[in-house]
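tool_call: predict_structure(chain=1)
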Amino acid sequence: MEMQMNHATACCHLCRSLLGWRALSCVLLGLLAGCEQPRAAAQNSMLSIDQCGSAYSYERVPQRAISHDSNITEMLLFLGLRDRLVGYSGFSAEKGTNATVLEMLKPVANLSTLNLNFETILGTQADIVVAGWGYGFREGKMTPKLLKEYGIDSYVITESCVRVGAQKSISLQDTLLDLRNLARIFDVESATHTRISQLESARADLAGQTTPLKNRPRVFVYDSGTKVPLTSGVFATPQAIVELAGGRNIFEDIQSSWVHASWEAVVERNPEWIVIIDYRTPNAQGKIDFLLQKAGLEDVEAIRKKQFLVIPYAEATPSPYNIMQAQRLAKALHPQLDIKIQDPMSLLQ
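tool_result:
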């Protein structure tokens, strides 16, 4: 039995390296059971999905996935795909990953706390890498094109496309689109339809409460930085969270994702609330202490009233938790509203 399995694995490697993982090649070798599952004939054996403006085709249903970064890994866990994860990467201690997520990942290999490693990917026999530009993928280094040359598929999250091309806007609908796309790629649409619909309903319900509001408190998103602050422009996920929560990002006029602003601009725009991204050092409380003590900020309304809300890194980047964080922020900005806060992972039960 062991010899048969080793033979199957070796031949599947041959399929991958020489024939681009084509299911027909594996059939001709009589080893389909040892390779990835081809798509059903009803799907025309091909699935095409738009990624950053270009069509990407998937010939088979992935069985051995790698995810990069905590937020993207949360997407796969939300879709019930833990058993198809052969590893994850990009989980550094400074990202403060959700305890529920860490518990769910105990059976899965932690491949790296830093960047994607090509040799490691090959060693896992992965058939797909789920990541994004700036979330594991970088031009000239790890790219979907490079993976494809070795027969490994990829999926690029929508929010990250702004790093390689023009983007019209950002919305939490982008995260929902990623979840639907991944459900199609992994052939779990039926199994995940209800939970994705519930997440969409939660987004729509919150939008129904906050969209009509005329009073939209000014919000400063503070990621890090002492000399100059790193914050969210109009194309980073916090922009979508703040907007859905019924607030206004004070740097929404900056046509970029994560950007450096100035303390003078923060003072001039006078935020009423400050969203602290719990990421890197110091921790969230350390960042709050810094802001409270920083000379020149004492007259900023959010500083005077000590109005802060902390969001972990993974939930301030594309994740099933984005809507929950928008609910939390909306409850802080608009206490008169009856807003329910729901943990997305509870939808798996």
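agent: The chain has three domains: 1-35, 37-168, 199-348. Proceeding to next step.
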